[in-house]
Amino acid sequence: MLRELTGEERAEYFHCIQPIWGGGLEETRFVAFQRRLADSPESRERYRLLGWFSPKGKLLSAMKAYHLAGSCAGRPLRLLGVGAVFTPAELRRRGHAAEMLKAAMDESRASGSHAAVLFSDIDAGYYVRLGFRALESRECTVEAAQLPRRAGYRPAFAGDEEEMTSLFAAARNSDQRFALARDGWTLRFQLRRLRELARARGSGEPEWGLVTEGGAAMLRFGRDTLDLLEAAWTSDAARDRVLAGLRDCMQRAGRPRLRLWPAAQLRGLFAESERTSAIAMVAPLAADAPLPEQGGPGELALLDHI
Ligand SMILES: CC(C)(COP(=O)(O)OP(=O)(O)OC[C@H]1O[C@@H](n2cnc3c(N)ncnc32)[C@H](O)[C@@H]1OP(=O)(O)O)[C@@H](O)C(=O)NCCC(=O)NCCS
Question: Is any atom of ligand 1 closer than 6 Å to the C-beta of 86?
């Protein structure tokens, strides 16, 4: 049976996934971080923690489920986002995760979803057997020296979200490729995640973006990289100011490389390589859903990797 995890089950799930997705956070901090994120206003109706239970009520496998919006070929799509699928080691290889995923996809199909989307960190063949197909999944690693120098930007503050969202959305308006919506929710959810993560680390308000006249970028500090979650601009000059702002940020924070997924306006700027993890995958849930073929292009930025 598929149902939402209750308080204690959630804590158990967070405890189990911490060694894999803990990002260096010590366990109690990671559990508190995950709990606050799940209880946040941004999570309401968009983010659930689901468990697959035996008839006797034993938790066999669990996952994160997101209610996402997207589009492909100009048609709006309702999407099930799947994350952090986990089966306890002693219960693996009995089909529990597969049954849970099928049940979650059936439930989502019944409530009107057109497709499911996930980012695979394991051999993609597992998800192919469940009806998923891998999409083009590339990344760029950029050295500070490749970025222009030009003054004229400021850090993003609370209150900038709306303007940043409209810039990000405008950069994708005519998009025919498979993409997740830039309706503001993804930005707000990722910002909530960054804030809760900073709180769990005890490091206060995080630096999460930069803004310039006609341009903006949302970012996150990785261990060795500056991760560019999303960026958009309305002119070449604004693009250069955004990139110069990122260069400053890298130098200030001691991150020698910028990491990004080439989507929308970030496409075609830098050399791309195939990703070895976080492979984007989609599975149709409705027969008439317009979706890219296996290996087909998508417009998924790091911001979408939730
Ligand atoms: C992946 C995972 C959720 C599968 O759970 P499960 O309940 O054992 O899944 P199922 O019984 O439905 O399927 C088992 C299959 O999973 C696949 N699988 C498990 N781990 C895998 C890995 N690292 N790479 C590729 N395939 C893997 C295998 O195909 C395996 O089939 P096999 O037994 O014939 O080799 C579980 O191994 C797990 O929790 N791993 C750690 C967390 C993780 O990596 N999650 C996936 C994130 S994308």
Answer: yes
Q: Is 97 in the pocket of ligand 1 (CB under 6 A)?
A: yes
- Is residue 48 exposed (0-12), middle (13-18) or buried (19+ Cβ within 10 Å)? middle
Closest CA to 61 of 72, 50, 71, 69: 50
Transcribe 68-86 into DSSP letters. Answer: EEEEETTEEEEEEEEEEEE
Percent of the chain at pLDDT exceeding 90: 95
Choice between 204 and 102, residue whose per-residue pLDDT is larger: 102
The residue whose CA has the least distance to atom 22 of ligand 1 is 122
Q: Coil, strand or helix: which one is 271?
A: coil
Residue 151 predicted with pLDDT over 90:
no
Domains and CATH numbers, the chain: 2-137+275-304 (3.40.630.30), 138-273 (3.40.630.30)
Positive or negative CA dihedral for 205, 206, 211, 215? negative
